Amino acid sequence: METCWEEAGWERLAPGVARRRLPEWDETVGVVVGRTDILVVDTGATLRAGAELRALITRLTGRRPTRIALTHPHFDHVLGSAAFAGCQVYGAMGMDELLRRERETLREDAIRHGVEQNAATEAVDHLVGPHHLVSGELTLDLGDRQVLLANVGPGHTAHDLAVLVPGRPEVVFCGDLVEESGTPQAGPDAIPGRWPAALDRLLALGGPDARYVPGHGSVVDAGFVRAQRDELAARFGVSL
Q: Which residue intervals define the domain Metallo-beta-lactamase in the entry (predicted)?
């Protein structure tokens, strides 16, 4: 996997595990390749981004992705999902209802952040929400490896899902619970008072030696996540 994926603009994180930082919003998408299944973590901000992502993964693996994990319900992480027809989609408990109820808000948010109006409307009209909801933890069997989905929020949103890929090293896809390229964004749907505790759960999930993959920015270590937890606690007046 290593050479061809890196040449195609992906960053190798562990055997069979890679991520890519997309242009425009610098959102991270991930992929975990198993013997029988391929898991994609987040799908980009538009149908076009999702279609390009799916085509690239299919070309590099010789197989089509089969499963998607959505880390949280923001436009830049979910609006490419409809390009993955036939995939089983996983999200935190309640995310399906939120995406049905807040479609217009999602469309307006995408447009406000620079997605072209027709592209945003098309993506929202064809949006695919989670088929499987994670309340605590859920293990996915990809054939020769298992991946753990963990509902570690709320924090950045009310529906934050982390993806743990066991191995050496262990890899944790954090969504926007962790951001490296800027200050973590707390929008109107954030739950700041519980965000530091969500990062404690994230650290417990991955451990001290894991590679933590933020929703935006470079891969970080446990020390960075711990420092960001402390910064958020101070910012929002949360006692640790």
A: 26-216
pLDDT average, residue stretch 185-193: 95
Task: Answer for the pair 19, 27: CB distance below 8 angstroms, yes or no.
Answer: no
Q: pTM value?
A: 0.96
- Does residue 88 lie within any of the structural domains? yes
Instruction: Give how many domains the chain has, as a whole number.
Output: 1
Taking only the tens place, the pLDDT of each residue in 153-165 is 999 999 999 999 9
Name the amino acid, one letter, at 152.
V
Domain that holds residue 65: 1-174
Give the whole-angstrom CA distance, residue 22 versus residue 103: 23
Residue 147 is classified by DSSP as: E
On whether residue 27 sits in a domain, the answer given is: yes
Q: Is the distance from CB of 40 to CB of 55 less than 8 angstroms?
A: no
* pLDDT tens digits along 1-60: 556 888 889 999 999 999 999 998 999 999 999 999 999 999 999 999 999 999 999 999
Q: Is residue 90 part of a domain?
A: yes
CATH of the domain at 101: 3.60.15.10
| 23: in domain | yes
Strand partners, 28: 21
Identify whether 154 is preceded by a cis peptide bond (ω within 30 of 0).
yes
